[in-house]
Structures are given as C-alpha cells and as structure tokens.
Amino acid sequence: MATRTVKKLKSVDKGEYAVAWALLKAARQAAKLTQRQLAAKLGRSQTFVGDVELGRRRLDILQLYEWCKATGTTLSAYAYQVESTLDVLPKNLPKTVRAPKARAPKK
C-alpha cells in the first residue's frame, strides 16, 4: 500500500503574506520612490527591495521599521493597514504565488 505524503505549507505560503508585501510596495510607491531609491535610503541593494516586494525575503521588525520610516509612514500605520485589509478579506486566502528564485546563468 502506497503512502501519500502531504506537503505542509510554510507560513510564508499563506495568502495573507501577499497582502503584507503589496502594502510594502504601495508604501514605496506612495512615497514616489523607485526600488533603487528606497534601497539607497535603506543602505541595501535594489535586489533586496525587489526580493521583499516579491516575497522572496522577509523583514524582521527593525527592518520593517526602517522601511516604514524611509517611505514616510510609521510602523503602527503599516500594521493598521495590514490588519484592516486582512479583516475584510475572506479567511484562508489561497496559497500565494511567489516568484521563483533567480537561477545562475548557464555556461
């Protein structure tokens, strides 16, 4: 008898994360900053900003604070936006579609 394995979703695969990423991107766009400009304010690369917005990279609380500060908002305002958006969305959003990780160029 064959056993069937069920792949458990990681927490970042929950659809709710897409809301958080979209709001980070919206904060950057509202500040009229390009990814490159925000990256310079954060002392990071443009790739870092892009990876965060695509869900490839998570921010810890202090990085999130710096992101908010650099985009002219507050951590509490961002948290409120996330909470109020998630409160009106259906429970158990579908699994997010995350961009694949970059592959090394073929030789």
TrEMBL record:
| Listed Pfam families | HTH_3
SMART domains, alphabetized: HTH_XRE (SM00530)
PROSITE patterns in the cross-refs: HTH_CROC1
The residue ranges of the HTH cro/C1-type domain are 24-78
Which InterPro entries does this UniProt record tie to the protein? Answer: Cro/C1-type_HTH, Lambda_DNA-bd_dom_sf
Q: Under which name does UniProt file this protein?
A: Helix-turn-helix transcriptional regulator
Q: Which organism is it from?
A: Dyella flava
The uppermost taxa in this organism's lineage are: Bacteria, Pseudomonadati, Pseudomonadota, Gammaproteobacteria, Lysobacterales
